[in-house]
Amino acid sequence: MTNPADSSGTTYDLVILGGGSGGYAAALRAATLGKSVALVEKDKVGGTCLHRGCIPTKALLHAAEVADSARDGEQFGVRTTLEGVDMGGVNKYKDGVVDRLFKGLQGQLKARGITVIEGEGRLTSPTTVEVGGTTYTGRNVILASGSHSRSLPGLEIDGQHVIASEHALTLDRVPESAVVLGGGVIGVEFASAWTSFGTKVTIVEALPRLVPAEDADCSKTLERAFRKRKIAFKTGTPFESVKVVDNGVQVTVAGGEVIEAEVLLVAVGRGPNTAGLGFEEVGVALDRGFVTVDATLQTSVPGVYAVGDIVPGLQLAHRGFQQGIFVAEHLAGLAPTPIDEAGIPRVTYSEPEVASVGLTEEQARAKYGEVEILNYNLGGNGKSQILKTAGFVKLVRAKDGAVVGLHMVGSRVGELIGEAQLIYNWEAYPADVAPLVHAHPTQNEALGEAHLALAGKPLHFHD
Amino acid sequence: MTNPADSSGTTYDLVILGGGSGGYAAALRAATLGKSVALVEKDKVGGTCLHRGCIPTKALLHAAEVADSARDGEQFGVRTTLEGVDMGGVNKYKDGVVDRLFKGLQGQLKARGITVIEGEGRLTSPTTVEVGGTTYTGRNVILASGSHSRSLPGLEIDGQHVIASEHALTLDRVPESAVVLGGGVIGVEFASAWTSFGTKVTIVEALPRLVPAEDADCSKTLERAFRKRKIAFKTGTPFESVKVVDNGVQVTVAGGEVIEAEVLLVAVGRGPNTAGLGFEEVGVALDRGFVTVDATLQTSVPGVYAVGDIVPGLQLAHRGFQQGIFVAEHLAGLAPTPIDEAGIPRVTYSEPEVASVGLTEEQARAKYGEVEILNYNLGGNGKSQILKTAGFVKLVRAKDGAVVGLHMVGSRVGELIGEAQLIYNWEAYPADVAPLVHAHPTQNEALGEAHLALAGKPLHFHD
Amino acid sequence: EPVAVGNGSVHVLAKPPVRKLAKDLGIDLGAVAPTGPGGVITRADVEGHVAAPAAPAYE
Ligand SMILES: Cc1cc2nc3c(=O)[nH]c(=O)nc-3n(C[C@H](O)[C@H](O)[C@H](O)COP(=O)(O)OP(=O)(O)OC[C@H]3O[C@@H](n4cnc5c(N)ncnc54)[C@H](O)[C@@H]3O)c2cc1C
Ligand SMILES: Cc1cc2nc3c(=O)[nH]c(=O)nc-3n(C[C@H](O)[C@H](O)[C@H](O)COP(=O)(O)OP(=O)(O)OC[C@H]3O[C@@H](n4cnc5c(N)ncnc54)[C@H](O)[C@@H]3O)c2cc1C
Q1: Which of the residues B51, B440, B460, B462 is marked catalytic?
Q2: Shortest Cα distance from A384 to chain B (angstroms)?
Q3: Taking each helix axis from N to C terminus, what angle separates B216-228 and B361-368, rounded to the nearest 10 degrees?
Q4: Superfamily per CATH, domain A11-148+272-332
Q5: Which CATH architecture has domain B162-268?
Q6: In 3D, which of B29, B96, B87 has the Cα closest to residue B56?
Q7: A304 CA → ligand 2 middle, Å
Q8: Using the chain's own numbering, where are the disulfide bonds (chains A, B) (predicted)?
Q9: Nearest 5°: CA angle at B431, between A110 and A420?
Q10: Following DSSP, what letter does each residue of B199-242 receive, concatenated?
Q11: Are B355 and B215 in contact (CB under 8 A)?
């Protein structure tokens, strides 16, 4: 799809380096606004999220749910059996979902007249990106080169025994046992899926709790659920070393304990793809490898913007979408409202799920001093009882003010984050939500009940 | 728990006739507001919803989901089998959920100091209810006697072959075949659950479409899904007669066709429990059996209020809750905002689910003249693809105005109604929702995408 | 109208719950002076308007 004429004249409104969540969202929005766009992608449009991230992991987690459901059928009076997991079949299903969405995305890019340039791009000036000897000029450039799986110093990922998430997603078997290094979102999601498939999992996390970026109550409840699921985890336990042996790995953690397993999954975070792409040469300021930006996502080089995982902050696909859309609208002169990073919803799709938006209790105390907290236990929520899930909804409110944090743990609570997101971002008061009695029996009813309780009007309230 | 002293003096702030959703919500809220409350219940507090309605049906539907999941496991690469459904086990699970919530409710009533009076009550004056010879006096009385399964003229429910929902909920077996008379919410939910359990189901509906109270697009999509699930339905087909035979029933429908089945479930609506309870004698005006009320839910008799299924309108538990809370607050002088009936969310928990709030397209056209419609197909929604569900999100907007109707069909979309409810009731514009990019990959993202598209900013938009 | 259309872009004058609050209180948002960023009417603006209504229509 390379347009050979580009070196010899065409100037695009926008040249975007990287066709992942951030890059393609910017491209789609800019095209809708009538801009001409060149989108440079060396691999496949859709990027990490579509091909090696959000979508395949969630397909895996849904297959895991199917397995759990069959294993636990008797609890519901249904005689089901789980005979096994056919990873070939899971991968086929997973790839089918990815392919369908990939085709849809390609169709969208085409339909909106976006020029997709295949190849590895390099920033060569504030207005040019070079791809395979051809220079593409844009009135503006957006950097959206994304991120890659990081490791720890001295810990080499061999893709066989010591693997990263991209390898874990293409395994042709269910490992018998696994050590997951890192108790953040990605680590916890794989630990959950593998456990459902029958793997014996141990999570090793250096920080004192699982999902350490979440409210401490979320960590506590997730840890309780994982304990019940027999997922072993060692928090506050730094990794020391790994030895690859014949049948797997021997992982040594702080204190000297050695854990044997078939594979070690390294899920210690993702580093920005910003080295060797010409950024520094053109003067784009970096901070520990990340591209620093102002409130409009402009880099230190006027006219050059950055979106997605290369920008410090939450590494989430929909943050990339939002940033991409923001820059496209900003460049079109629409003056979009700056993005409140805390207003971006966060979901961990493990069993149980963890979902949050806004500030944790700790952050809210730091910001507002006095806060009010309301914990609504899902034990009082009919639908959650029907699903046999435990968990809670926690609301954090600035004293006499708006709801500034919503935190949830439980099966399927990730879907409640849409409502929570409106409450946080629209700065609603408990009294705004309280009169809107929620549909019975749903899980979102728990959000309603929590707001009723926080507004001083508890209905089905249980401590 | 009867207080024998009541005839001889105690005056309650509130006497409530009926301890179902409407009655107990009023009781709980009034008690929180410091009122003394007597709650009269002849059977079990919790009423239809808890014991014979919402909760047991949703437990059944979840067992159905477990069965479907095991039946379809191969699609996800998981080797599962469904060996059968053990109705004894399903009933035990279902009863376990009901019992737990029943205990919770009893605990709440007790904790808030509400006097529960066991027995059949009768309104004897605008301020008194008589129960087994004892008269209970309230400064105000709330009527909340609920509803019962209706039938058609000449169609006798024998509880064996010709059954109503309460019988269907205690069946000790999965019927081999069933005719479901009525394609409304209750009929469609049983048709869905039984089909998942292996019953051969035929729905007979006199009106031209299933879930006829919903937007026509919802009916169409649900019908398509039911066709795929091999659920037979005959719409626009009035029932004529039924003959009970040895092994079941022979149902004759308009046109003369005879359908044989093991059982006939009559789900043609619910009638108000208002006869023989003294209402008319005290002067409470009725309209076709329902209690007519003003905007504050006061009946034609000053000081006597009515809530729940006896009040014309949606027969939903959370409407009962909301009305109960409203009356309690109104009587406490809190001047609550009158309830917008259209703002009450509606969920049909079949597979797929149907969920809506606000006006249908037809209603919106009648009210606003010009409207804008946006249909977002779940084919473009990653999480829905992962769940392998089809469906859509439909938005109805007053021309250049607020979103006045949200309609959805698809597995699990019932949980998205919480967000939809805020959008409708807070009169949000598409442009209010659009900048709040939703969590990826979730189903609630489809709501976000639909608002983006309606605001003229489509992201992952597919027709 | 709580949402004004101009310059091809939609400018929201108040967040939905605040608009709803104003409506429930019977306040015309057009009569409320905005103090929020970008000319957005805040909850405090609405509440302040209730406490100290602008010059009465009659004099
Ligand atoms: C296992 C896993 C699970 C995840 N799950 C979720 C989830 O459920 N929800 C969520 O919100 N987020 C999730 N994420 C995070 C999400 O994938 C990222 O936040 C998102 O992909 C970031 O988008 P991006 O556009 O910044 O970068 P990427 O998606 O990484 O896209 C960058 C693109 O740029 C291309 N590129 C890089 N350099 C060049 C170059 N020089 N020339 C041309 N092209 C180049 C790459 O090939 C790539 O396609 C997950 C991530 C992982 C790894
Ligand atoms: C199969 C089925 C499924 C349903 N599913 C849902 C759902 O998923 N979601 C939803 O929102 N709604 C659902 N409903 C509707 C819901 O159950 C009703 O809307 C709700 O129960 C109405 O509450 P109520 O308080 O008006 O009446 P009820 O719940 O019927 O309660 C009335 C109470 O009054 C008592 N009573 C009556 N007369 C007297 C008397 N004379 N003296 C003393 N006590 C008396 C009764 O024993 C009863 O306990 C369902 C209904 C059915 C039948």
Answers
A1: B440
A2: 10
A3: 170
A4: FAD/NAD(P)-binding domain (3.50.50.60)
A5: 3-Layer(bba) Sandwich (3.50)
A6: B96
A7: 62
A8: 49-54
A9: 105
A10: -EEEEE-SSSSSSTTS-HHHHHHHHHHHHHTT-EEE-S--EEEE
A11: no
- The domain limits of chain A are 11-148+272-332, 162-268, 352-455
Whether the Cβ atoms of residue B307 and residue B327 lie closer than 8 Å to each other: yes
CA distances to A210, A394, B312 from A221, in Å: 10, 12, 43
Tokens encoding A130: 């070079």
CATH fold for the domain made of A352-455: Enolase-like; domain 1 (3.30.390)
Q: Can you tell me the distance from the alpha carbon of B123 to that of B282, in angstroms, rounded to the nearest whole number?
A: 7
**DSSP run (H or E) holding B356:** strand B353-358
Q: Binding site for NAD(+): what residues of A are annotated?
A: 182-189, 205, 269
Q: Do A304 and A291 contact (CB within 8 A), yes or no?
A: no
Q: Which atom of ligand 1 is nearest to the CA of A146?
A: 27
Closest CA to A76 of B58, B93, B91: B93
Interface of B with A in 179-238 (CB under 8 A): none
Q: Is C7 exposed, middle or buried (0-12, 13-18, 19+ CB in 10 A)?
A: exposed
Residue type at position B116: V
pTM above 0.90, yes or no: yes
Q: Do C5 and B337 touch (CB under 8 A)?
A: no
Distance to chain B for A32, nearest Cα, Å: 7
This model of the complex carries an ipTM of 0.95
Query: pLDDT tens across B32-76, in order?
Result: 999 999 999 999 999 999 999 999 999 999 999 999 999 999 999
**DSSP secondary structure of A123-152:** EEETTEEEETTEEEEEEEEEE---EEE---
Specify the pLDDT at position A7.
63
Residue A70 CA to residue A81 CA, distance in Å, equals 5
Amino acid at A237: T
Neighbours of chain A (3+ CB pairs under 8 A): B, C
- Residue B281 marked in a binding site: no
Q: B78 forms bridges with which residues in the sheet?
A: A85
Parallel/antiparallel/unpaired status of strands B134-143 and B304-306: parallel
Name the residue of chain C whose CA is nearest to A401's CA: C43
B451 is catalytic: no
Task: Pick the ligand that lies closest to the CA of residue B17.
Answer: 2
From B337's Cα to the closest Cα of chain A, the distance in A is: 8
List the end-to-end C-alpha distance of chain B, in Å, as a whole number: 61
Q: Which of A17, A21, A349 to mutate to test the pocket of ligand 1 (most atoms within 8 A of CB)?
A: A21
**Active-site residue, selected from the candidate residues A62, A330, A440, A460:** A440
User: pLDDT (tens digit, 9 = 90+) per residue, B35-44?
Assistant: 999 999 999 9
Give the dihedral of Cα atoms B289, B292, B297, B302; nearest 10 deg: -110
A432:C17 CB<8 A: yes
B269 annotated as ligand-binding: yes
B11-148+272-332 matches B162-268 in fold: yes
The predicted structure's pLDDT at residue A231:
98
B443 lines ligand 2 (CB under 6 A): no
Structure tokens at A338: 């700056």
Q: Quick check: B29 and A54 CB within 8 A?
A: no
Q: Which atom of ligand 2 is nearest to the CA of B270?
A: 53
Which structure tokens are listed for B83? 């060996």
Report pLDDT digits (tens) over B319-378.
999 999 999 999 999 999 899 999 999 999 999 999 999 999 999 999 999 999 999 999
Cα separation of B137 and A244, whole Å?
80
Of C9, C15, C38, the CB nearest to A426: C15
Cα A313 to middle of ligand 1, angstroms: 14
